[in-house]
Specification:
single chain, mainly beta, four-stranded antiparallel sheet, 25 strands
């Protein structure tokens, strides 16, 4: 299937690194920035209202939250609490939406300032952290709750964050190879252990408390608290390359359709080193209880950068470093859609 160009939904004024959707509120949350470099590129978290306009999905800027000199590189959402990875720290934000009572004269004057990719009638205004930005009829406020350092390597950097199934705990991983578990919303640390020699690339928490981590040491591990349960071996029922080391790039749990008590785990494997003639990347489905591989399929020669699973567990989404997005059927790992939607690295993807 050839590439198709997707219609543009929203263009941010900064590099985008993370996305989340709040379906209950109809919000798309987009975050990123230029970091501490004095390039003039801002850092922020944008809250966008999703709506149908003339039969097509549209997005208008509802609120712009300033993150000062820190670019948000990863996000996790639990209700109205947002966990943001900024440099070596995790920042918790709480947002609320409610009906707007009416604008003051100052707000009406400010509404003339136009934000990126707004529909007619939207009136966002960028302000300092915690300020409000208005769209007709709706207003959103953001409150800073807590912040904590989550990585302690010589060049500390939080790479991934996720909530557990009931949103009472938060797991983080970064360049020092340690998993740290935190209470929500106090960010009190309850567990810490070294999961990998080197960087943690991704992690996923299952509803039974099991944690899957993948790292730059070419390992994927399953943990119960800080005890190693097993390690994944994707090539047991798949291809074997003696001269091409692969590493796990991403991991996600997904529900088995029509079997709500069962889970599958999905992982992406990419060549550990870039080669002139790159070998394919691979997508693997695993049994969510035994962690044995069910099937493995090649997923192209473009290096995969992110993985997403639909809420129903029916579809998988893959993004690449060159800007392509592909959709796969979760059960068969068959590709059903390929789109060259971006011209650069895809760092976040939602289904």
């Amino acid at each position: 299937m050839g590439r198709r160009r997707a219609p543009e939904l929203y263009r941010a004024p900064f590099p985008l690194y993370a996305l989340q959707v709040d379906p209950s509120a109809g919000l798309l949350i987009a975050a990123g920035g230029g970091g501490a470099a004095k390039t003039g590129i801002k850092n922020g978290v944008h809250f966008l209202q999703l709506e149908q306009i003339n039969g097509r999905l549209g997005a208008s800027l509802l609120h712009s939250h300033d993150t000062e000199t820190r670019a948000t590189m990863n996000l996790a959402l639990a209700g109205n609490i947002l966990a943001t990875g900024q440099d070596a720290h995790c920042h918790l934000l709480r947002f609320q939406t409610h009906q707007q009572k009416g604008k003051t004269k100052a707000e009406k004057a400010a509404s003339k300032e136009q934000g990126p990719r707004q529909r007619k009638g939207a009136a966002p205004v960028e302000k300092t952290s915690g300020a409000e930005t208005h769209q007709e009829g709706i207003e959103l406020t953001v409150e800073n709750l807590q912040a904590v350092q989550t990585d302690f390597s010589p060049e500390p950097f939080q790479k991934v964050v996720c909530f557990n199934h009931d949103n009472t705990l938060l797991a983080t991983g970064g360049t020092d190879g340690y998993v740290r578990i935190w209470k929500v919303p106090s960010l009190e640390k309850v567990l810490e252990f070294r999961a990998h020699e080197g960087e943690i690339e991704d992690l996923a928490l299952g509803p039974d408390g099991k944690l899957v981590t993948v790292g730059w040491d070419l390992k994927a591990s399953v943990w119960q608290k800080d005890q190693l349960v097993t390690q994944l071996h994707w090539q047991e029922n798949g291809p074997t390359f003696s001269n091409t080391p692969y590493r796990y790039q991403a991991c996600r749990f997904g529900q088995v359709p029509d079997q709500p008590t069962r889970l599958r785990l999905f992982t992406v494997q990419i060549p550990h080193k870039r080669l002139r003639q790159p070998p394919p990347c691979y997508l693997t489905a695993w049994d969510g209880s035994t962690f044995l591989p069910l099937r493995t399929k090649p997923c192209g020669h473009e290096v995969i950068s992110c993985l997403s699973v639909s809420e129903s567990g029916t579809f998988l989404g893959l993004g690449t470093v060159t800007g392509s997005v592909a959709i796969y059927i979760a059960f068969s790992l068959q590709e059903v859609f390929l789109c060259g939607c971006c011209s650069c690295y895809v760092s976040g993807l939602l289904l």
